[in-house]
Amino acid sequence: MSAPVYDRIALIGLGLIASSMYWAIKRAGLAQEVTGFAKSAESRATARRIGLCDRVCESAAEAVEGADLVVLCVPVGAMGRVAAEIAPHLKVGATVSDVGSVKRSVVEQVGPHLPEGVHFVPAHPIAGTEHSGPESGFATLFDNRWCLLVPVEGTDPEAVQCLRTLWEGMGAKVDEMTADHHDLVLAVTSHAPHLIAYTMVGVADDLQRVTDGEVINYSAAGFRDFTRIAASDPTMWRDVFLTNKEATLEILGRFTEELFALQRAIRTGDGDHLHEYFTRTRAIRRGIIDAGQDTAAPNFGRETTQ
Amino acid sequence: MSAPVYDRIALIGLGLIASSMYWAIKRAGLAQEVTGFAKSAESRATARRIGLCDRVCESAAEAVEGADLVVLCVPVGAMGRVAAEIAPHLKVGATVSDVGSVKRSVVEQVGPHLPEGVHFVPAHPIAGTEHSGPESGFATLFDNRWCLLVPVEGTDPEAVQCLRTLWEGMGAKVDEMTADHHDLVLAVTSHAPHLIAYTMVGVADDLQRVTDGEVINYSAAGFRDFTRIAASDPTMWRDVFLTNKEATLEILGRFTEELFALQRAIRTGDGDHLHEYFTRTRAIRRGIIDAGQDTAAPNFGRETTQ
Ligand SMILES: NC(=O)c1ccc[n+]([C@@H]2O[C@H](COP(=O)([O-])OP(=O)(O)OC[C@H]3O[C@@H](n4cnc5c(N)ncnc54)[C@H](OP(=O)(O)O)[C@@H]3O)[C@@H](O)[C@H]2O)c1
Ligand SMILES: NC(=O)c1ccc[n+]([C@@H]2O[C@H](COP(=O)([O-])OP(=O)(O)OC[C@H]3O[C@@H](n4cnc5c(N)ncnc54)[C@H](OP(=O)(O)O)[C@@H]3O)[C@@H](O)[C@H]2O)c1
Known about the structure:
Two copies of one chain form a homodimer. By secondary structure, the first copy, chain A, is of the alpha/beta class.
């Protein structure tokens, strides 16, 4: 057990990320009390049933009352609304943070609502699964994963340092960058790949001459990895694309250009071009395994028999 | 141990698929003797060192001598050459099969070389990993996976039945379809997804404003699944695209069309269209898990700490 980093933490939204944070905070004793709030009565009831949060409140305002740290764990499109709701109830000297997958938009939505004397340190843990809701979280989600802090200019360095200590206590490695750079990096490593996976799964579903049964049975050939990505929460991803429009469209533009070049190589039978391209991409995989961001075991170490 | 299905099996090519077949054949006692041959002296030496095959031969001709079943386990582009080489040495009544990821092309390349009295039953096990070479195989690769048989018209049903029994003995479920339908189904479930993954990994690698380190560290957000797919053997995949040109280009055309529609929805802020599309793709994932082709555990059941 570490010493508590904050006396009271409030988690607004009780889905995958918030519930994982709660279990990780408890694992390391990083706060005295954690309050929580989710929009629906159903999620609040589930949270109470499974012991998620020391206290589940009936409003966001109640949850943030007296909190030293408030973390917005809602879809990116809801951040502004929630910020407006909690702003009058924030304690002077409190820190507001979030876990949204897009940062420029959160800075713009949340920043203007926050009163003087409240610190604002946007953050984004690069960790997740395709599951969502209060029951999907687990304490080890952030272990050995990165959490990006995106402090806005003039932020109190001490508030940033506290949040960094919290994330490190939850198992994460912490880095800092600007909101715009964050949004470009994530467009490459996450947002564009997700849209592409969604698209490919949609195409397979649409194709009349291939049955769903065939798609499902023969998915082991590569497609099932796309379906995993494309099974993620629709609301979260709608918001990500709408709020990181520019960078996502830029990367998709580059992607289409490159895809057309490879399609042309296939059409003209340019095997050397293909071979060269496919050889280059192997190195990146090696780097990811060396960096500890994935396992070298075949098929991600899936059990082959089930 | 089952009764042997064939007295002698010859495996030509000793990579991922052939080595997995060998271990699966031995696990269930499906043949009295398995001979093997690979192009390079190095792979043959490795095979001898790790006990892969009862006898590793110095030529494909020698390996197929007296074999009741010959399985071509080489890249699709090499199938014709190997067939020409072994044809004069095939035993009357023998069956020739293969494991190539494309079927129309293999039928066209191999068929014409085979003498009268030799059965030809093309096949394709839908199972693999991103690894290759003689040391990458394991006995359970085919367990609970599908193997597609693509018998050409007029094939002896008994020869087909024997091969089916072999694949079932290696743990696979067996289905039959035509070569053209196979190539379309695989273009959807495997070939197009692979090209897309290769493309996206190439784009990330090219982007000057995002460092390789950033791509690698923040890959957990979705991108790492693409890199796994894009780490597969360049020669195998070059051959797949060059030999399944038509179906792959058709699916990529549909994919681009759909991607453009989603890009337009992002650009115009049509959140309903995005949400609806993302909701639909979840059902396919459910189907794949129900069919036992993947695990429901988050992140494919990866260990979260490593
Ligand atoms: N999933 C990932 O892989 C991942 C990774 C990193 C970051 N993120 C980011 O983390 C945030 C949360 O994602 P998640 O995966 O945890 O989502 P989730 O499991 O779908 O949970 C979202 C939570 O937000 C609540 N909520 C929605 N609107 C609200 C509002 N107006 N007021 C209060 N609560 C509200 C929901 O309440 P109800 O349950 O009552 O609907 C739910 O508890 C998103 O911004 C996402 O971009 C996600
Ligand atoms: N990998 C998959 O996921 C997967 C799945 C289903 C089907 N397939 C198909 O299975 C076949 C083999 O794939 P793999 O993954 O096992 O490949 P691999 O691990 O790269 O092995 C290919 C083997 O073929 C040998 N070879 C190449 N050209 C040859 C020739 N002219 N004569 C004799 N041997 C030759 C190679 O010999 P050297 O080692 O000496 O170079 C190597 O042993 C391909 O047709 C592929 O499309 C692959």
